[in-house]
From TrEMBL:
Name under which the protein is recorded: DNA-binding domain-containing protein, AraC-type
MF term (GO), any: sequence-specific DNA binding
Classification via InterPro entries: Homeodomain-like_sf, HTH_AraC, MarA-like, Tscrpt_reg_AraC-type_HTH
Domain HTH araC/xylS-type residue range list: 13-111
Pfam families: HTH_18
Keywords from the UniProt entry: DNA-binding, Transcription, Transcription regulation
Keyword 4Fe-4S: no
Length: 278
């Protein structure tokens, strides 16, 4: 049951790595299917079955997501960016860019606005399959506990006062037009200046996207009797002046002291090696 989810995870990891390294030859369907040892037909069929989209569409949208950030953040010419990401011409890149984001690369460079990027999919997710903390450090010996002072900042987010946990949150948000996980994560990924973004391509803390709780008298009572609302969003500089997507909220968070529980890194290789049937 899980083997093809692992195989598709290998493909999407390889796609992102090759896009970052400008290795266009290694992200063709022929190359990736041979790497897995399957035919191109079987690979594309399983990719769509598991991811819900065609391989070529996913690849094109991931290239555009990387290219958009370079249009936004660099001074490189649009033509050079087009060639770097495998487009045959300035016109081909512009058509694809506008068809996806509703604005040309040149217009976007002049005035960046939040757009929904195609974020990286994660078909082999330990929580989704109920594997729990596979790959997470079990010992508490290396857990560090300390206080930090976090300066005043803004928090751009969506919220749900009835959800209970990550999966329930996104299940409930998926029923609200424009607030599903794919749309929100894509919008957040397009915003420049996220404080916690370390350059990761995944929609998690590495990309600055975080799950948070806000004390809220209208929220759901948690186990220890405090009403809270669950939120998902990004921290932004206090002087952030960018556009706020219509389906999202922005609040000011004052400077405060926080307690941090820091553990070791997650071992993704162990997750991929894990066989739940063994």
């Amino acid at each position: 049951m899980y083997e093809w989810h692992k195989q598709i995870q290998i493909i999407v990891d390889e796609i992102d790595e090759c896009i970052k390294n400008r290795n266009g030859e290694a992200i063709t369907l022929r190359f990736l299917s041979r790497k897995l040892g399957y035919s191109e037909f079987h690979t594309t069929r399983k990719f769509k079955e598991i991811s819900g989209m065609q391989f070529r569409d996913y690849l094109r949208h991931r290239k555009l997501a990387f290219a958009l950030k370079e249009v936004r953040d660099s001074e490189k010419s649009i033509l050079d960016i087009a060639f770097d990401y495998g487009f045959s011409s300035h016109e081909a890149f512009t058509r694809a860019f506008k068809g996806t984001y509703g604005v040309t690369p040149s217009e976007y460079r002049k005035k960046p606005i939040p757009v929904a990027l195609r974020t990286k999919i994660n078909p082999f997710d330990r929580y989704f399959f109920g594997f729990g903390e596979i790959g997470m450090m079990k010992s508490t010996d290396d857990v560090k506990i300390y206080f930090v002072t976090i300066p005043a900042h803004k928090f751009l987010h969506i919220k749900n006062s009835e959800s209970n946990g990550y999966w329930d949150f996104w299940q409930k948000q998926s029923l609200i037009p424009g607030q599903d996980c794919e749309t929100i994560c894509g919008l957040l990924d397009s915003i420049k200046g996220i404080l916690d973004d370390d350059g990761g391509s995944e929609s998690n803390s590495g990309s600055g996207q975080i799950m948070a709780y806000i004390n809220d008298p209208d929220g759901r009572l948690c186990d220890w009797g405090i009403p809270r609302t669950e939120c998902y969003g990004v921290r932004l500089p206090f002087d952030y002046k960018g556009e706020v997507p219509p389906q999202m909220l922005m609040i000011d968070v004052p400077e405060a002291e926080y307690i941090v529980f820091e553990h070791g890194p997650f071992d993704y290789d162990q997750q991929l090696r894990y066989n739940p049937q063994s």
